[in-house]
Write a structure and sequence with these properties.
Elements (H helix, E strand, L loop, with lengths): L2 E2 L2 E2 L5 E3 L8 H9 L4 E8 H5 L3 H5 L10 E6 L3 H13 L4 E6 L4 H4 L11 H14 L4 E6 L9 H10 L4 E5 L14 H8 L7 E4 L5 H11 L3 E4 L9 H11 L8 H19 L1 H8 L3 H4 L7 H9 L3 H14 L9
Parallel strand pairs: 3-4, 3-10, 4-5, 5-6, 6-7, 7-8, 8-9, 9-10
Antiparallel strand pairs: 1-2
Helix pairs in contact: 1-11, 4-6, 9-10, 11-12, 11-15, 14-15
Length: 332
């Protein structure tokens, strides 16, 4: 049984990665329905929380059915991160997560996210202060290092464990790689081989199929996996992996009716939570993946990504249900 503090997550939990402008409550709802064991909010700026910025505060929204749920924060100032941690804890999450992995320039080049991998001592000091500031379990998400010459991930995990984190997720790429090239999970195996490290380790990077998930579980010995981009527009991946682990067989691909049902559920929640204008706009990134592989689908996708109202999108989905009624999806 994998535990974060007293929080039991099952034998091999599958986590939904925190993704900016993706891992919001509407998306988390469909991932939870389809097997995600632990989910995190989008990452939230510590400075935004302290200033009570509306966008940052809205990201604190969590719902009882989502539990267990973690709130993730990022920043480059220790005192600001302490304050933000306390604000986040007051929102009632089960876990507080620290983002030490975001590679984008506007975050990393300011010393936050993956940028702190250039200053491991500060990373450890910041983590220690955050652990002291809250009563809930603190976890970390990070990368192997800034680049191939600065990979110290085994040391980093050991030191973060020593100041009190209770689990860690490692994206098996460097910051320099961004999301390119193959993730190198051999470093995760080295973490598990270190007899001093006892906290759960969740592997992240390139988990895009049940077959790969099983292969990586067996080869690298991680305690669970965090799935990000592969879940965008395809929340079924969590249950597909679980089924494959249990039976060695692949689940049938979700059929058209199921894809339309989940798309409408996602869309409906998005509009209710964000308002129609923003809810419609931010759903557009998901349509391609929800209906990936369908022939001659482009005209319908274009209608959905240019529609301005809920009713317009719903009407296109209803038309898709009729026009493609006989289409059979094949498991990937």
């Amino acid at each position: 049984m994998v535990k974060i503090g007293n929080l039991a997550l099952g034998e091999f939990p599958l986590l939904l990665a925190p993704m900016e402008d993706v891992s919001d409550p509407p998306f988390r709802a469909v991932c939870k329905e389809n097997g995600a064991d632990l989910m995190y909010t989008e990452f939230i700026s510590s400075e935004g929380l302290i200033r009570d910025a509306a966008k940052s505060v809205q990201k604190l929204d969590i719902f009882e059915y989502e539990r267990p749920i973690g709130i993730q924060i990022f920043g480059n100032e220790i005192e600001s991160m302490r304050e933000a941690a306390a604000i986040a804890e007051a929102a009632g999450p089960d876990i507080l997560d620290i983002n030490y992995g975001c590679p984008v320039n506007k975050v990393a080049c300011k010393g936050a996210g993956a940028g702190i991998l250039l200053d491991i001592d500060k990373m450890v000091a910041m983590t220690a202060e955050i652990v002291k500031a809250v009563k809930i379990p603190v976890t970390v998400k990070t990368r192997l290092g800034w680049d191939s010459d600065t990979i110290r991930i085994v040391e980093v995990v050991e030191r973060l464990q020593d100041v009190g984190i209770q689990a860690i997720s490692v994206h098996a790429r460097t910051r320099k790689q961004m999301y390119k090239g193959e993730a190198d999970w051999t470093y995760l195996a080295k973490i598990k081989e270190n007899p001093r490290i006892h906290i759960p380790l969740f592997g992240n990077g390139d988990i895009d199929s049940p077959e790969r998930a099983l292969d990586y579980r067996n080869r690298f010995g991680v305690d669970g996996m965090m799935i990000g981009r592969a879940a965008i527009g395809y929340p079924w991946i969590f249950n597909e992996i679980k089924h494959f682990f249990e039976t060695g067989e692949k689940l049938a691909a979700p059929d058209l009716n199921e894809r339309i049902r989940i798309t409408k559920k996602h869309l409906d929640f998005s509009v209710k939570w964000k308002g129609e204008k923003l809810g419609i706009l931010e759903m557009r990134r998901h349509y391609t993946n929800y209906f990936r592989g369908m022939p001659n689908f482009k005209p319908y996708r274009m209608q959905m990504v240019t529609a301005d109202t809920y009713d317009e999108v719903a009407a296109v989905l209803d038309e898709v249900a009729v026009q493609f009624a006989d289409y059979q999806f094949v498991a990937g």
